Amino acid sequence: MTVKVLIPTPLQKFTNNEAVIECEASNISELINSLETQCPGIKKSLCDDEGKPRKFLNFYVNSEDIRFLQGANTKLQKGDEVSIVPAVAGG
Prior knowledge:
Elements: E1 2-6, E2 20-24, H1 28-38, H2 42-46, E3 57-61, E4 64-65, E5 81-86
Parallel strand pairs: 1-5
Antiparallel strand pairs: 1-2, 3-4, 3-5
């Protein structure tokens, strides 16, 4: 399945400053691996040492937070849009 991935500015150093990348993947885990193949080094910024998405990054599939879906196993369909959004904190 071809999906569109919206890359946040801090991670665009891995994508040759591209804000949008198209990937072939059937779920979020495959998407992360596909991104790593296309943009070497990005996976370390997306995943912890166990290979799970980092807690300070939010992944959305068509505006739905994957934490409220099936997490990294969230299924993707052709034409889906995945947004990677760094968490914002402050005081």
